[in-house]
Structures are given as structure tokens and as C-alpha cells.
Design goal:
By secondary structure, the chain is α/β, with parallel strands linked by helices. The chain contains 19 helices and 17 strands. The protein folds into two domains: 195 residues, Aspartate Aminotransferase, domain 1 (Alpha-Beta Complex); 256 residues, 3-Layer(aba) Sandwich (Aspartate Aminotransferase, domain 2), CATH 3.40.640.10. The chain is globular. The relative contact order is 0.16.
Amino acid sequence: MDRTETTGHIPDGDAYARDLANLRSRDFAYLDADGHTYLDHTGAGLPPASLVRGSAARITGGVFGNPHSASPASRASGSLLAQARRAVLRHFRADPDEYAVIFTPNATGALRLVGEAYPFTRRSRLVMSLDNHNSVNGLREYARSGGASTVYVPVAGPGLRVDERRLRSALPARGGAGGRSTRGGERGRGLLAYPAQSNFTGVQHPLTWIAAAQARDYHVLLDAAAFVPANTLDLSRYHPDFTVVSWYKVFGHPTGVGSLIARREALARLRRPWFSGGTIYAAGAQAQWHVLADDEAAFEDGTVNFLAIPDVTAGLEWIDGIGMDRVHAHVNALTAQLLSGLRALRHSDGSPLARVYGPWDLVARGGTVALNLLGADGRVIDERVVTRDSAARGISLRTGCFCNPGAGEAAFAVSPRRLRSAARRRLRSMEEYLELLHLPSAGAVRVSLGLSSQPRDIVTFLTFVRETYRDRTPGVSGLETRGGC
């Protein structure tokens, strides 16, 4: 075993790892002070203490007002908002002549902006990978209301990767099924929406799909929320029409701020179904007319979070100062340690203690690992029991299906026939639902790593699993405790 798997120490000579260990002691000391092991970075990043202190100093050291005015306080806010837009474009290497940055409450808010305004028609289609967050799945309701069809591309194999052959079939070439190429080279046959990284399995789906879909006259919406905390997204190399992120997943602070980074030509194709304060140049009540703003403001409803958005600038300076390449290498090394440790977990008879959903290697995968723990008889230990037991040990992880039902259905091999049958039934409990789908558990356990993670966190988790579940059987010694999830 690697030294870190048994001791949690940093290998001698690894300067980068030592730097990040020092960062943990400076900016995330509250974790160790509370004896807390945090393993839910896909759910939320942790706030660095220095960013929080800097935010408080900025807010209390100046006067900032609603930016929809020309007062000194408003101009101060407007200047910081403009800085934040430039910082986002710079971080993603995006040309400001090509891309615009719209601030939203979160990635879900950015997705809603696209869904409600995208020109879905009966001649267009929405293509999605089965592996998608529910906030992306929700786009199909907008597609349905516009008369467009929705096509899911399945995932396949033990790695739960998208079947690229099926993806190509879902995006027919020009002149094929699904409509004709639009005039002037404009894309308009539909929308491909997929995650750069799965929030369930950690699989990283190819960014080369972007240009391939665009060549077939499709716009592309890239859900980058789980990808950008530990990976570089270069928008000078890849050019999705719409990219959504939530900043608290990258550097923990602030919450309640996300971004839609949109190509200006794609943004011009959107048709908003309403207007609001902040999105217009002018409006009349009695004459019932309005003129939408012709820039990012047309999509920023009401007053943006002008006190928090400047923290995005500070957060990007902080993460860029560390270096995304270093963050990526750090998370990769920890993921390798975790996967190796899970593979080594065995009951006394040699049977595995863990079943991992998704890749066992580091090829095109991130620091999100979904698994179920297995009893000595091979049966799945209910993940709600794991929630209870891990919480008692001061470990924060995630259990369930992580708002990604498609990946869960594929991981647990649930057939479409059974799902349709369940949808027709009025189910009275989770237990009835599990029984109908022939599932032993309501979901999986997700362990996800990030910048503040250290090797000792993984050692703590693996030790917890070994000490709590090795050679034990579900239903014995309180392992099988049903409850809501």
C-alpha cells in the first residue's frame, strides 16, 4: 500500500502536498478543531477563512448600493460587478467579444434561464445524457411545452460512460432525421445538454462532444458545476454555447451565486417569456410595451446579489493563486488513494466490503466516488444506516441518488419497464418503492474530495468502514434500520 493509505502522512519531497497541507491548517483549521471529516465536496466546497475575513472587511469598509442607479454607492457596486464578470471570463480563458457572464443564484438558476427562453419547436429536439443532474433533466419540461422531443442517451458498461455510438445517432448529421440545417450557419436543430463531470460517478464526459454537436447544428449546454472545482475549463479551446457553474462548489464562499457563461450569438437566440426590474431599458404600463436590455442585464432579474458577487473575484484570485493544475493533481492523488483503499477493504473470507459505481481507475474521472458497502453475506448495507453511523463518527458524506436518477437507474440496473410500472402506482412508502423495483437500498454512498481534503481524511473514512462493517451482516447488530431518506 502507498504510505498515505496507512498513515495519512504526506510523502517526503512532495512540496505541493505540503503546501496544501499548510493551506488546510491556515484556511480550514476549523475542520480539525472540530474533529470533522468532510467528504462532500461535490455537494459544496468549504469556505476558506481568509476569503470570509476579506469579504467582511470589504463590506464593512465601503458603501455599496443597488447598482440600478448612478449614485456613488451604486457606482461602487457596478464597478465591482464589472470586475467580477472580467474575472470569470479570465478564469475560463473566454474571449469577452464571444462570451457574456450572467450572474444567477446558482447553476440551477442558470439552467432555468436557458430552458425558459430557448426556442424549442416541434422541429427541434432536446438531447441529454442519462447521466444528468435533475436541474438539467428539468429542461425537458420546457422542451415539451414547446413541442420538441426529448431523447436520452444511455450509459453503458461498468464505468457507466455514455455510449458514443448512441450519442451520434441521437444527433443526426445534416439532412438526416430531426430537421434540416438552418440558414446562415446558425444552429437551431436543438440542444444537447450534458455534464462535464457526473455528480454521481465522477465520470468526465468528453468535451469534444461540443464541437461534434455544433457541427450537426445543435447548441450545447455544458453543466460544469461538478467539473470546475478541480479541473481547468478552457473556453478558448472548447466553445459550448451555454456553460453553468455554482461558485460555492469551487471555493465555498459565497453561496447563492452562480453564473451562466453564454456565447453572445447563442444568447441572442433566446426569447425571454417575461421581463422584470433590472432587465429592461424602459417599460410602459398603460401602453403595455417594454424594451429589454441588450446585454447581460436582460437575464439578471431584479437586483443581483451585489454584496456577494465581488467575492467571486476574490475567490478566483485565491484559487488561481494556488493553481488549478495543482488542485487537479491533489484531488487525483487523493482519489487514487481512496479507490485503492476501497479495493483493499475485505471481509475475513476475502469478499469485498465495497461496490463502486463508475470507473475504478483515474482515466477521465474526477474526485467523486459512488459506492455501496456490503455485508459479509454480500448484501447491500442500507445507505441510511451508513448515514447514521458516519455522522456519529463526525464524518460528512452524501447518501441517496444525488439528484441524478438516470445514473442511479443505470448503476442499480433498474429496467425501464419496472420504472414505468412504479410511475403508475400510488406508492405509500419508500419501502414499497424499493420492493417494487427490486432494490436492496434507496441509493448509494458518495465520497467526494476537494482542495481542503487531506490523506488523513481518507484514512479516517476507510478505518470507519473497516471497524464498523467488516464481517457484519445487514439485519444484525442494528445494521438494518429503515427510515425516510
